[in-house]
């Protein structure tokens, strides 16, 4: 099941009603565990075996760490090997076999290795990081190992954020699960508003732009203007798709009394690549910073070690997104820019920061040079075509291709209008109307408008969220 299937509103309405009727925290948590099992196992029940297996493993290892602290490195190693091994098998085994087969064929060797035809369990990249993070936090002494398995398994399987995050830390979510929760009308109202906005971004904006992007990227030789317009469209598509999922997740959780962490914070206003990754998919960025980049750098002041740790981390960020070389290039490209910005800002004269309009120029440069090119690396899965795209004249096109480019840009910009209006509402209108009698009528009017639009734009054969494949 996913958030934009017609079954989900019915599912959530039932869960929401029963959840607040039962009242007691223990029964609420039990209900959410059962509901999460239904939600995740809706299509492929066997996916539950992997998720619960990972949960049981790290629950047991964390308790073993507290019982035998002298062997904690061994227990952490078992967690890493088991979880990363499971992730590697289900997500990367086919990729590995395909590359071995191609290498053998290039050397004239027989390369019939068969095919594993492994189905990737949805959300495996997210819940394995949560269970590993829990074990590592216990080993570091930052968290006490839990003894209540029901509370712990809810932390791992909570349906609001199970499939595509945000990747929650145990130290942040577990205390909320262990605390009593009471119905709050204002939290329910704000959660509903956030969930509706997320669904609107997904169904009305992302899913409307996606077909145009797909049609351009399947062309053998798309004209330069058309290609880069489609890439710009993909930037907006993936942002509205993924941030839309996060908004629904946070809104649904808020209606149930939980606060999930923010995952996006105006990423396209970033002036540097470092800042971008502090604004985009923040839960993944900060997870890898704390559990990978930090340990790799350690207390060393070596520039070479910092560069290697940064590049390694970003290559793994790319590879985390998918078993394809274009994702590796995407991570490498961003990692190189992080290193560049890291040193460039140190060497930059202080006077440069005071140049009028300098911030806008920095945002514009990063948007084109890093985000736009990076989006093309992310979208184009045929690595052989990437160089063709980059070297293609961005202004050479026939009259018909320019017309198609204009139409595509019009669709994309039309999709950006609600984003701009939503930003203005959050930044200026809502704060100004706080406490006013006009706030509630304007908000409900906005909800009605979004529901009408979603009804009109809804597709029976709708698209899954982009990050479900990761």
Give me a quick take on this structure:
With 470 residues, this protein is mainly alpha-helical.
Task: Classify the secondary structure makeup into a structural class.
Answer: mainly alpha
Q: Mean of residue pLDDT?
A: 87
Order of helices and strands: HHHHHHHHHHHHHHHHH
Number of strands: 0
Described by the principal axes of the CA atoms, the overall outline is globular
Which value, in Å, is the CA radius of gyration?
24 Å
Largest beta-sheet details:
none
End-to-end Cα distance, whole Å, is 16 Å
Descriptive account of the structure:
- This protein is an all-alpha fold and 470 residues long.
- It is 71% helix and 0% strand.
- The protein has helices at 7-22, 25-40, 47-67, 72-106, 124-139, 149-157, 170-177, 185-217, 224-255, 273-276, 282-297, 303-321, 325-347, 358-379, 383-391, 399-433, 439-457.
- The radius of gyration is 24 Å and the shape is globular.
- The mean pLDDT is 87.
